[in-house]
Amino acid sequence: MPGRRGAVRRALGFVRPYIFGAGAAIYLFAVGWTRWRHRAAIVDLCRHFGYRYDAREPTELPVASASAIAPSGTLFEIREIDAVDGNVSERELITICRLVRASSPAELFEFGTFDGRTTLNLAVNAPAGARVRTIDLPREYVGSSVAPIHSHEVQYADKDVSGARFLGSDAASRIVQLFGDSGSFDFAPYYGIMDFVFVDASHTYEYVINDSLHALRMLREGRGNIVWHDYSRWDGVTRGLNELRRLHPAFRGLSWIEGTTLARLHA
Ligand SMILES: C[S@@+](CC[C@H](N)C(=O)[O-])C[C@H]1O[C@@H](n2cnc3c(N)ncnc32)[C@H](O)[C@@H]1O
């Protein structure tokens, strides 16, 4: 009976995802959790049900207005405006572009390439002849970095291509890609030559401290701009920057740019 067969097929099509989901959940919590890829799926599941690893660290940095860091009339260029999870917001991208245009850095460094959206915008807003270096964690290093990265960060590291948004673009020749774990990478060749550093790799406290200290040493004669992403949103960033400002004289000038999760040091 064709009518009855069709109804059975529809019923099977309806229950199939539930059966598959139940099987996957049993696997996930029985043995799947032993692999980092599946632990990231558990975090996503928790988020779906309302769990938030919300910021618990109080913010301490003084707030600075965006117009105080770059004149409001600054002209800048924006590429790849549409953000995906893992990118800076549109407002944050605009703020970074304004700051780069206003400060004209010749040498720029980014911790955490991801899809290269910010890298590309750094490159097109820096003056002619400028160079952007950007470091990313190769996906094979995810389970073996010198300190564990947060399970929610795994999805940004686990990708086929790093810097997809600038590869093949007109700005690609101004960008140098570096690969490695910022916890063990040799940054010595970049000390003392950077004018602008963007810190946006792992947001665990240990990596924030590590990357920030390298960023400071990278500045040319100790002068320039360092910008961090996710202050106030990620506890590791908030705690790390609060402590650096309290305890390290070179970070005393840290501020939090209003309307963003960007922190900035103008040394
Ligand atoms: C949030 S994404 C960066 C987003 C990017 N800066 C942007 O503005 O679109 C974090 C990136 O940092 C990288 N990363 C995480 N831990 C790292 C580490 N220990 N060393 C180097 N890169 C790391 C990840 O592979 C990922 O591509």
Number of domains: 2
Global shape: elongated
Enumerate the strands of the largest sheet in spatial order, edge to edge or round the barrel: 1-7-8-6-5-2-3-4
**Ions, cofactors, ligands: which are bound?**
S-adenosylmethionine
**Unreliable stretches, pLDDT < 50, 5 or more residues?**
none
Assign the CATH superfamily of the largest domain: Vaccinia Virus protein VP39
- Looking at the overall shape, the CATH architecture of the largest domain is 3-Layer(aba) Sandwich
Provide an overview of this structure.
This protein is α/β, with parallel strands linked by helices and 267 residues long. It is 37% helix and 12% strand. It has helices at residues 2-30, 36-48, 66-69, 90-103, 117-125, 154-157, 205-218, 235-247; strands at 63-64, 107-111, 131-136, 175-179, 196-199, 225-228, 255-257, 263-266. Helix 5 links the parallel strand 2 and strand 3 (131-136). Helix 4 runs parallel beside helix 5 (117-125) and helix 7 (205-218) packs across helix 8. The longest helix has 29 residues, at 2-30. The protein binds S-adenosylmethionine (SAM). S-adenosylmethionine (SAM) binds next to helix 5, strand 3 and helix 6. S-adenosylmethionine binds next to helix 5, strand 3 and helix 6.
